[in-house]
Amino acid sequence: MLPPTLLAQPRSPERATSRPQPPSAADKPGAARPGTTTPTTRPRAPATGPGSAQAAPSAPAIFAPTETSAATTRVTRWVIDTNDNGSLPFIIIDKKAATVFVYDAKGKQIGETPALLGITDGDDSTPGVGSKTLAELGPAEKTTPAGRFVARIGPASTGQKVLWVDYDTSVALHAVVTGNKKERRLERLLSPTTSDNRITYGCINVPAHFYAQSVQPIFEKTGGIVYVLPDKKPLEVVFPPLRGSRIAMQRVSF
């Protein structure tokens, strides 16, 4: 279980400033933080998760890809077969497919949804990016880093609770931010292509009802592990345990 300490001076959902107490080394085994993506267009089905059907009348009809990429399948099998997540729930973020997959601690899928990601392709965060204001970020710094992260729910400076994926670089997963209408973030989530899902400063935006039903209640007590798949780097570079493993060598077919 992750340390229960919450963030003393929380930052805003989209990259702002101050640090939590870091997870202990025992909670962060083999953490990897490992830099143009081909847009995909394919049929989408309604986002899945607890209460999705009940939420439909009062929430926009958000859609998610109906297919799972080979990379996502490969990493998911590795996590479950090796128990890499321990006793914690986990999330896999497929950046190329702009999709978030949520699983419970036993590897049962809870839901999936499209997501908005950092406006710039890349698998690393620029050193010191976590201490900058949004206005100070250059285009190349607005990336969603790839890797394995110990994540936990904590407050942002706005008061809302977010899932801090990498607090040092101010990357969180949270309900979609809609303050800037020109960014059309809700429309981007609804579109049938991934080519317009790159718009954030680095955070991962998901539909508000999905966050409320399939993320916050699952990660509230224990936190969990988030695996962010790379844009450019090989999977084995971002997740070294995949090298030479039976799962790594296995051919995935659909």
Brief characterization of the structure:
This protein has 254 residues and is of the alpha/beta class. It has helices at residues 52-55, 70-82, 185-190, 208-219, 235-238, 246-249, and strands at 44-46, 63-65, 90-94, 99-103, 109-114, 117-118, 147-155, 161-166, 171-175, 198-200, 204-206, 224-228.
Verbal overview:
This protein is an alpha/beta fold. It has a single domain (41-244), classed as L,D-transpeptidase catalytic domain-like, CATH 2.40.440. It has helices at 52-55, 70-82, 185-190, 208-219, 235-238, 246-249, and strands spanning 44-46, 63-65, 90-94, 99-103, 109-114, 117-118, 147-155, 161-166, 171-175, 198-200, 204-206, 224-228. The strands form three sheets. An eight-stranded mixed beta sheet has the order 5-4-3-12-7-8-9-11, sandwiched between helices.
Show the helix and strand layout.
Blueprint: E1 44-46, H1 52-55, E2 63-65, H2 70-82, E3 90-94, E4 99-103, E5 109-114, E6 117-118, E7 147-155, E8 161-166, E9 171-175, H3 185-190, E10 198-200, E11 204-206, H4 208-219, E12 224-228, H5 235-238, H6 246-249
Parallel strand pairs: 3-12, 6-10, 9-11
Antiparallel strand pairs: 1-2, 3-4, 4-5, 7-8, 7-12, 8-9
